[in-house]
Amino acid sequence: MDEKILIDEAKQGSRKALSQLVRLHEQTIYNFSFKICRDREKAENIMQETFYSFVKSIHQFDGNSKLSTWLYRIVANHCMMAARKMKNYHFVSLENDEDDLFEDRYTADWSRLPDKFTEDNELKNILDEAISKLSPDYRVVFLLRDVEGLSTEETAQITELSIPAVKSRLHRARAFLRKELNEAFAV
Amino acid sequence: MSEKKSNCKDVMQHICESLGEDLNSERCIAIKHHLDDCPNCKTYFKTVELTIDYYKKYEVQLPEGAHERLISFLNLNDCEE
Prior knowledge:
The structure holds 2 protein chains of 2 kinds. Chain A is an all-alpha fold. Chain A has helices at about 5-10, 15-35, 40-55, 65-85, 100, 115, 120-135, 135-145, 150-160, 165-185. Chain B is mainly α. Helices cover about 70% and strands about 0% of the residues of chain B. The chains are: A mainly alpha, B mainly alpha. At the A-B interface, α2, α3, α7, α8 and α10 of A face α3 and α4 of B.
């Protein structure tokens, strides 16, 4: 059934429509949540909290944005709240030392990677390790904009950042992850 | 206009928009001249593109039983087909 019809029915109180909307979006929301918090149990809890918020406030959804964008806003908020509880955890600071992000003494040959890394989950481990070092404030911008493909404006709305701030965080996050991968691939 | 030139213009536009500059500004023209002949920048952009691509392809599947736990958490068990 068309998503718009399901949304209208859910807003009129149809629990069956709610259930179908949950099924349509649960994989995307779990995937996003996992990529922010890097822990399966936490990701599942955040997914549950996200859909709980969704069910409670579906009547407020005005349809001006896509439902998925609205859900990203809710899940990103839950992820950021969970991240703030980890305030003692040390993330890499990207506020200073920008030059360090762009200087490579050596650039690995990335064209040879598929054979070397993709088979035994080594690439996944490298990706996990690199993004885990990135502060969730940067991680959420990178994931919304580059991985989920939202626009800069949508990312700014969801994260409540200005457009220049989104661009700046995205630029630094990309540079940091690229540098981390380059160092890992060079070993 | 060739495809290569069109791609380069897109890249330039993107970079210059990020910098808040228009395409014909002095700074943008200087960037274009640099990019035309800089292997480091070419490698940098290529590897940023690959970095994004790796993260895009990294999908995590919903764990077994997570859907049922979610529906139960939301008290929607009676709505499942």
